Amino acid sequence: MTGTGFEADYAALVALYRAGRHDVVVERGGVLTRSHPGRAALFNLIGASLAGLGRHDEAVEAYSNALAIEPESADAVNNLGAALRHLGRIEAAVQCHRRALAIRPDHAAAFNNLGTALRELGREDEAITAFRRAAEVRPDLFEAHLNLGNMLVQAGRREEAVACFDRALRLRPGDGYARAQKLFLQAHLCDWAAIDAEAVAIPELGVSVGIVSPFTLMALDDSPERHRIRAERYVADRFPPPRPRRFAAAAQRPARLRIGYFSADFHDHATMHLMAGIFERHDRSRFAIHAFSYGPDRDDMARRRLRASIDHFEDVRALTDADIARLARQEQIDIAIDLKGLTYDSRPGIFAEGAAPLQVGWLGYPGTLGAPLLDYLIADPWVIPDEQRGHYAERIIYLPDTYLSSDDRRPIAATPSRRAMGLPEQGFVFGCFNASYKIGADAFAIWMRLLGAVEGSVLWLLGDEPHAEQRLRREAAGHGIAPERLIFADPLPNAEHLARLRLADLFLDCFVYNAHTTANDALWAGQPLITVPGVSFPSRVASSLLRAAGLPELIARDREHYEAMALELALNREKLNGIRDRLSFARLASPLFDTGRFTTFLETAYDAIDARWRAGEPPADIHIARQQSPWQPM
Fold this sequence. Notes:
five-stranded parallel β-sheet; 13 strands
């Protein structure tokens, strides 16, 4: 150090810390502790730099040293709690943050960290209270407003969350993450005027302005190039660099390849609606199936069905990413399947830690992670056409029909009456059960023109957001359509939801982010669907499903064709019934709903990538060949 006295040396370390020079702080601070062993602030600063380097176990030791010197240091206790949380010791972290607040009741950072720990424990209301107190104690604390906004989103209180992100943006107008979160909420709320006001800025968010959660802008920007850039920057910012994966490959395939599926959604969720049949159809003589669940512990039918059809179920909610990856390695998983990508509750850090020799993304996230976390991404030639291939960091496994699985054992309840569902007894029913964030002003304008052209028709939508319902009714009135011609459906259990879909005449898809599971539901229920493909993966999924169902004529060339096709089918009942008949046949015989066929292709893909790895060959794009099938579209 400089030899000019502790205060000067300590000030120099603080400057280095603020500049992000954590390694230098640790090295020089360690030297300084030998000549000044009684300085709690010094150990606290070293701990903060160790935490900045991801060395949280060493940070715990440094903070403990600080507290041994100064037991009533609220900063050291608060920082100790943060380090313990990173090590997965969440309850201990909560106790530390509460102790810090007992020492200093106005410690805004301790309230903020307490909220984070409570959120990880699933104690939603307490977390909201803690974040709110942090913002009240220190209104200029950006992170408090941001975290409160995110927590309110999780609680479904979107209008309040928008106000939080507004306050955060007043503190940091250039923060791309907060702006993207706000836009995503406004999409959920169908606040298209607010989105239009930001339209010029959207392409740059997460690309040249800030770091954003990539999923938030997928429904607002149909650009696979920008999707990749956002993912690259987000993963690089939020997760550690991937650890080298050092696995010794036996030359010969084992009798049973160990496949590990990782998700937060192994319960009554869209993922299980699509995958339950896959788990049941896996060839258990050749594959050992493991599920690693880091989502809620729910004893529902979907969870019971899963557990009955696989070899091992691991509840890993309480484990860190590193511990989950270590468990997967101990279980000798050959291929790890990430079912979440960069969606809500995802944990890409598991794959940064190296869970298996081969790591594959599938189903839950329609895009690239933009980083070398995954070796492969499962897709099909339609959702990732050749001209867009360069916008995906992973090697692609192209399945032959569609990448989206189906469960051909999904039950459908008895069809209810129209009256029971709040629908008119007579009149054409246009339906769209997409989440509200997928509905854009352009699609809605087309739908209103269709209602205007088809006398007595109604539009049946999913009622998942009351504020969105109010806005959509006002928008309808602005288009000259009586608001009561929009009918909103409450959530129902899946079998009952599928049954009510049969009451609609025609499903109208959204544009930038298509119906995915929702389209699969509609087709399984026998409801024809019209879509128009865009450029990016999420805008092409419904088209992929229609092709696999043998109904490619329902894929419109452009939005004008989409509108014309919908109008023709609404006015030509004979033609619509003919399509319904073909769809009924497809439900029994098409590749879209042949779960056994799909599982065979999936297992062929697993064998192919495993064989490459055992031969010492690097990952490469793989096309799974379509086998001869007696099925032909009518």
